[in-house]
Design a protein that fits this description.
247 residues, mainly alpha, binds fe (ii) ion
Length: 247
């Protein structure tokens, strides 16, 4: 959502408390994606490999993500009642499914540390790319919430570096790392495109945009066009699962 239309959408979404609370609750939900168990398993496996420095890094990463969820929880509280975030907006869960249930396979011992950290890398990269637009929109109405998101983005930049270093270290070689990363990025692009459509639809259904009747009709039209565009492609789910299974 970094183009002019996306920027306008975000500005109108966070302009009023209900939309702002929704945006912040959505960020909180993204931070809470069921990663706790995965981090536990990562720490356990890395400790078993004798790499204490790396285990420390993963523990710090886990603590950061828990802290981020708490920061956003407080930001939502300041705005008002916490809105529910529907399961269809849990983008990390969606991406995991599009990657053939990667985290479940990892917990079962059928996927490696390099796979999980490449997944984390593309998630962190997306936050670093997209969330500054949220900061800009928030700055117009809520300086404190904007500063919260900005501080979290600083951590996410560090996490991209962690993720890259760990995924590379646990890959067979640099070529394997680069190939996996390119494949995950392609799948994530499709998951994210689909996710934007769902996000827009939920916002419109809940009437969270601070716009007049005419502009609301325009947004509904744009949302409909976007959905139509996506449905004309092959399902991103099937593409993701197939490309992983065949690798
Ligand atoms: Fe985070
Ligand atoms: Fe992160």
């Amino acid at each position: 959502m970094t183009d002019p239309i996306g920027r306008r959408f975000l500005e109108r979404l966070v302009a009023q408390p209900p939309g702002r609370a929704f945006m912040l609750a959505f960020l909180k939900a993204s931070e809470e994606a069921d990663e706790g168990k995965i981090f536990d398993t990562l720490v356990e496996r890395i400790e078993r490999s004798g790499d204490d420095e790396l285990a420390k890094l993963v523990r710090r990463h886990r603590a950061d993500e828990e802290r981020h969820a708490a920061i956003f929880a407080r930001a939502v509280e300041r705005v008002g009642a916490a809105p529910s975030i529907p399961a269809e907006l849990h983008v990390v869960t969606d991406l995991d499914a599009d990657l053939g249930g990667l985290t479940t396979r990892f917990l079962a011992g059928d996927a490696g540390i390099a796979d999980v950290y490449t997944l984390l890398q593309v998630i962190e990269e997306r936050a670093v790319r997209e969330w500054p637009a949220v900061v800009r929109a928030l700055r117009l109405v809520d300086a404190m919430a904007a500063a919260d998101v900005e501080a979290v983005i600083d951590d996410e930049r560090r996490h991209v570096k962690y993720a890259r270093a760990i995924a590379r270290r646990y890959s067979v070689d640099d070529r394997a790392y680069e190939q996996r990363l390119a494949s995950f990025r392609t799948i994530e692009e499709r998951t994210y495109a689909r996710h934007i459509q769902v996000f827009t639809r939920v916002v419109l259904e809940r009437d969270l945009l601070a716009v007049g009747a005419l502009e609301r009709v325009i947004w509904r039209g744009l949302s409909w066009l976007g959905r139509r565009g996506l449905s004309e492609e092959e399902s991103p789910c099937s593409i993701g699962s197939r490309s992983l299974r065949s690798s």
